[in-house]
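JOB MANIFEST
job_type = single_chain_structure
chain_count = 1
residues = 410
[input]
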Amino acid sequence: MTDAEVFILNYMNGSEFSYMQVNYSLVNSTNSAYEWAWNSSVQRIKLDVPKFGGIYNVYVFGNNRSLGARAKFMVNPYDVCSVPKDTAGTVSSGYYYVWQFKTSDTIYFEIKATQANNPLGRATSSNSTNSSGGMGAACNVDTSTKQVVSNATITLVEVKNLESGALQNINLTASSCQTSYNSGGYTCTVKPLTKWDGGNNIAKFNIRGQDGTESVFYSRFEARAFYLYGWSTNWQNNPSSNITLNIQMYEAGSAWWGSGSTRGLSGSVVVKKVEYQGRDGEWVWPPVDSGYNVSNLNSSSITGSNGYITLTTSNMPGGVWKTGYYRIVLQGTTASGDTDYGYAYFGVKLWDVYGQPVECLSTGCNYKSYFNSRENVTLYVTINKAGTYWWSVVLVDKIFMEMFQLELKK
């Protein structure tokens, strides 16, 4: 091309940045102006990197505006790890890092920020920490390989409830962020104006470095009056099986999973709906009503956090389950009158099929995992009625019992 120009550079929120053209060697980030330049020898445009993290579109013209193009790039100035916890200040062990809270709880976010290092141009789009059973884990930053961001200004932008889409009301006076310790560490205190709306929430933060570079990052937490969780005794069931659900009800925000049964709640639970989610390769989302007649079910008592519910096939249209996966909507009520919701899941199949590669000799067959590229593969296949287990099933439930060999010929 004989010439080129930067026509428009806009941010992901629609705002536009003003750039001025200078000599190629003068484009740098030492001044406050946004500049661009064209080098015809190398056929390259160079421009200053915006100081706001996010996604950008740049529109360029060439050859006296006889042609045009658009390019997209992302600015990721910081790598930020954020994890909620139920205790203010610095903690090092115990059940502090959690993401399940009461609707009245104050949420504390532990944050660690480092300079983004993306030499291959692949910016990190998200960060997460391991979590299990309502618990999280502390952010782990290797300060020997990453440059920490110290003395940055972090502010809370908003908290949005993912289930309703509504913004939560924040107690701005009691909510703030501050440096908690060295090595790029910060703590943010976020308090509801009265109570959190129940459900999953996303907290949006803004981070501004001492050089004026800004970006946003996100964290999450869940707030409930209490937690209700269930699972089926057997994950895979056959169409004629009655389903037994194990139900647990426990107090939110109390690390119940790490402190034994002292935080379990008593009350009752009812099934509000049995939904169908489709089957393998034919998924249905959102789930649809399965037609199960829940009006024939009685409420189940929850004592010391534990209870049981049985779903009989007689309440299904046709008296059998359709093969696929199901979600049960549960409504729980505590002894004190608080109400909240939860889910349980189970699957239905005609049969379970299990196979493994084996090598059969005159002395018998044994498991084999490595084969020559020219060697036939022999599989030992077990087929049994869904809801039973091939290693402990009685003979009457076995659909296929004898040795079954499939030779996969190359």
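[summary]
The chain is about 0% helix and 50% strand.
The chain has four domains: 4-75, 78-224, 226-348, 351-408.
exit_status = 0
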